[in-house]
Each structure stands twice: as structure tokens, then as C-alpha cells.
Amino acid sequence: MLGDRHSVALALINLLGLAGIVVWCLQGRGRPMARLIVQILFFAGMTAVLWLGGILPHWVGETDLQGANAYLAKSARILWWIHLAWTLVGFVRLYIVLDHRPREARLLQDLVVAAIYLGVALSITGFVFGAPIGTLAATSGVVAIIVGLALQNTLGDVFSGIALTLGRPYTLGDWIALGDGTEGQVVETTWRSTHLLTGACNIVVLPNSVLAKLSLTNLGRPDERQMISLTVRIAMTQAPHVIEETMREALGNCERVVKDPAPLVALKEIDAVAIGMDLLFCVAGPGDRLLARNEVIDTIHCHCEANGLILAMPPQSYAVIVPTAANQPPAAVMRSRSSGAL
Question: Which listed CATH number (3.20.20.150, 3.30.70.100, 3.50.50.60, 3.30.450.40) goes with 226-306?
């Protein structure tokens, strides 16, 4: 009688396991919450049957080695371990989905999922089939050393990618500037490399080991606003406060210049012919820098014309009057102080 109950329990576990696989496949990846609920229900049902039938998933009793029970026992325990792995993987993926960062956490997710499947595979090998796990682990260690020596660079990229994922110096969509001058938006991270989309619409592929060694500036933190400085020289045809007010008005009329923080006009130098200043203004993000700078330059030109201001020459240059032929006006030629050449 006890043997019949034991056989019925094993058969029921097999039925639940196979039904769980069918339902798990029918759910699809688009419904992670429903899929996890189904996995938990079937796994809980299989565990309850194991407990009520006095069956241990990590121990094969003598009654499980006789006749048809041997096949039922092995398949039942294999299915239980598989459903355990799927349930744990479901919790990991659900946590990443609820954390709203499924793409940037892909490396960490793959690492955890691989560890779960490896542990379950070793458990099935040792507990269900009775293989010596110690010997298998030692053999696997030797193979791992050989493979590791052959794939040093690739493994360096992999572990650097894991370190970057855990440290999170950037996330997908952030603009970063590297110590070697490379600048772009992070569009993809893989086990081996990170892909940046530059302002020239090119994809730069950086190995993770190289990226981990470079100094990195995240242009998107604490927010994406970027400060831009533009140097301007205006001829001294008006008082400095008038010129300053005109520049401030020009910056205020630019649509791509954010108003918080407000743009600044810093007067930094003055000489006999011109006053020099730095225009400091912020844009919404790194991608707006070029368009914003163009808009500011155009707006400054328009305001200078409207207010009778004249853009001055750089302080390194001055005008030299060169005599020309009779009946022709003299020509002004630009001479550089630094080179002394016409």
C-alpha cells in the first residue's frame, strides 16, 4: 500500500512538472508576472506532493530503485529541480523589470541566471544520478584554467563589464566623456564591450577592459544640463553696462538656452578699442550644444546690429594701412603680432 502511494506521488509530480513546462511555454516572455505566478504554483504543488509522499529531492531511497519507480523517481526529481531553477530565474527577472532597468542590468542578470542553472545542473548530476560532484568539479576546474589562459583578454572584458555594471558609473542613455577625448551616448552594453553613439552619428565600440581603465565624466549626472562658454569682443562704441545688457537680452531671447540657471555675462577684459566678455549659458542636454551655440551666435549678431554695436577684432591682430596705386583708396591688411607676417 505504501509503495502504491509512493508511485502515485511520483506519477503526480511528473504530471505536474510536464504540465508546468507546457503552461510555462504558452505564457511567453511578454507576461513576466503571470509566468512567475504559474511557476510558483506548479513548483509549490510539486513540493507539497514531495512532502506528503515523504520523498526527498536530494536523496534516492531504496524503493525508488525498483522497477518502474526508478524511472519515475529520476524524472520527478529532475522536473522538481528544473522548476526550482525556473522559479528562481523568474524572481530575478521580475526584480529587474520592476526596477525599471532591464537593459542595463542584463550583464548582472545573465551572471545570476548562469549561476542558478549551473547549481541546478550540478545538483541533478549529484543528487539524482549519484555522480561524484567532487571529481567532476576538479575536472571542470582544470578545464576552466586552460580555457581561462586561452581567453585572457575576453575574460578581462567580461569581468570589467560586470564591475562596470555593479558600479553603475553610467546607464543606458547617459552621455559620457572619456579621458582620451571620446564622447558619446551609451546605447548598448554587452558582456565584452560598450557602444557609444557620438555627435557625428558614429558608433564607437569600446572593450570593457579599456573603458574600465579610462577616466570617465558622466555628462548626464546629476542632470543633463550643460554649461557652455562663448567668448565675445565688442568695440567700445557704448558703455560696458550697455553692452552687458545687450548680451544678456540676446541670451534671454534664445529658445535653446535654458532659463534656470539664468545665463551670465562675465566682463573679463577691456582695452583701448574693445571689451571682452564670456557668455555663460546652459542647454538642456549634450545633444543641444551645437544647435544652441549656433543660435546664440546668430542672435548676438542680430542684437549687435539692432543696438549699434560692432564686433571687435581679436587682440592678437591690428590693422595696417597699405598704400595703393594712385586714384585708389588705401587697403587695410590684417597683420598678426605673433607671426609678424602679412
Answer: 3.30.70.100
Contact 315, 305 (CB under 8 A): no
Q: What residue has cell string 545665463?
A: 263
Residues 6+ positions from 40 with CB-CB distance below 8 Å: 87, 90
Residue 294, judged by CB atoms within 10 A of its CB (0-12, 13-18, 19+), counts as exposed
CATH number of 167-218: 2.30.30.60
* Residue the block writes with cell 558609473: 169
Contact 52, 2 (CB under 8 A): no
Residue 48 identity: A
Domain ranges of the chain: 2-149, 167-218, 226-306, 315-342
Q: What's residue 165's pLDDT? A: 74
* Chunked mean pLDDT (size 10), the chain, 342 residues: 65 84 75 76 84 72 57 82 86 66 60 82 78 66 65 73 79 86 86 85 88 85 84 90 92 90 91 90 86 93 91 70 52 45 37
Residue ranges of alpha helices (H) inside the chain are: 2-27, 32-52, 68-98, 106-123, 133-150, 152-167, 208-213, 240-252, 289-306
